[in-house]
Write a structure and sequence with these properties.
It is built from 14 helices and no strands. The protein has about 325 residues and is an all-alpha fold.
Length: about 325
């Protein structure tokens, strides 16, 4: 019972992270299941089965908060389902000994990517145009395959790619990716069911993860508007890197002083990423504050304009200067 309560808490925290970042439910849950000694295929199968319920709840919540672009969802979900089914079939055919370092390597790489991604300022500006199917289709295919073989990866692959495009609001990127993941999780679960049979799913684990995720889904859809993704992404990336490094170090059979030295190096990298994330967050907030303050200064020039005096003349008079266009003729130059 204590283990199930811990798993429910894991599911709750993982869904809060996923709903706020658009990624990391599978990464967080699969990483902890691997640490607990669960076989890679069984861990990924159980997480994806639980995700059917959590992503459905998350999708509904995001839809109600207006965070979903259905055009993007329809164009990314089907290719993602195909990739997830193929990845689940592949992982089911690999032995546990071979799959453990493979899965840990994928999770470690994605965790490192999160560290690098969130240590830099996040792009939130938008440009014109719409995302095309020839971009969304391959993106969904690759993200779905990585998601099933790594026990997570749909969000870390799809969300940053859509954010970098600059053509969607961040909250709609997160909501659309979370909503499309419902189809991806269903396809992966079917692939694991065919490859492993029903005994491949750890049903008590699935139930615990599902309960925690369902509780957190509505709250996560609301938190996406206020939680600083910069810090959360860097923090989660470090946890995933360190926990999966344990499996990789064991597989490489590193002993002696090399092991603690490597852990210390990874911890130092995590700390550096957190510091950079804090700095990037402060710069972003400072830039937003300056942008918000700029329009407030504009009304100061309004009184002069109201009586037919150019704003330049008013500014120049305050410092004892005369604008060039007034000095020549004594009247403002037509503009």
């Amino acid at each position: 019972m204590r283990k199930l309560l811990v798993l429910a808490l894991v599911g709750l925290v993982a869904q809060l992270i996923d709903g706020s970042l658009g990624m990391a439910y599978g990464l967080t849950s699969s990483t902890l299941l691997l640490v607990a000694g669960v076989a890679p295929a069984a861990a990924s199968a159980s997480v994806h089965l639980a995700e059917i319920g959590t992503t459905l709840a998350a999708g509904v919540a995001h839809w109600r908060f207006g965070n979903v672009d259905w055009r993007v969802v329809t164009r990314i979900a089907l290719p993602g389902a195909i990739g997830a089914f193929a990845g689940a079939t592949l992982l089911s055919s690999i032995s546990t000994e071979a799959a453990a370092p493979w899965m840990a390597g994928i999770l470690f790489t994605l965790g490192a990517y999160l560290l690098i991604r969130f240590a830099r300022p996040l792009r939130t500006d938008r440009v014109g145009g719409r995302l095309r199917g020839r971009f969304l289709g391959p993106l969904g295919l690759v993200a779905g395959f990585v998601d099933a073989t790594g026990g997570g990866g749909w969000g870390p692959v799809a969300t940053p790619a859509l954010l970098v495009s600059g053509r969607m609001e961040p909250r709609k990127v997160i909501g659309s990716v979370d909503t499309a993941e419902f189809v991806v999780a269903g396809a992966a679960s079917i692939g694991f069911l065919i490859g492993l049979g029903s005994e491949g799913f750890l049903l008590p684990t699935v139930a615990a993860l599902l309960i925690g995720g369902l509780i957190a889904a509505p709250l996560a859809a609301w938190l996406v508007r206020i939680v600083p993704a910069q810090l959360l992404g860097a923090a989660v990336g470090g946890v995933i890197v360190l926990t999966n490094a344990r499996t990789l170090i064991r597989s490489a059979e590193l002993d002696g002083p090399a092991r603690p030295a490597l852990y210390a190096l990874l911890a130092a990298g995590w700390l550096a990423a957190l510091v950079l994330a804090v700095r990037a967050l402060r710069r972003t907030r400072r830039a937003r504050a300056e942008a918000a303050a700029a329009p407030a200064a504009a009304p100061a020039a309004a009184p002069a304009a109201a009586v037919g005096v150019p704003a330049e003349a008013t500014d120049a008079a305050s410092v004892g200067e005369v604008p060039a266009d007034l000095a020549a003729t004594g009247t403002p130059t037509p503009r």
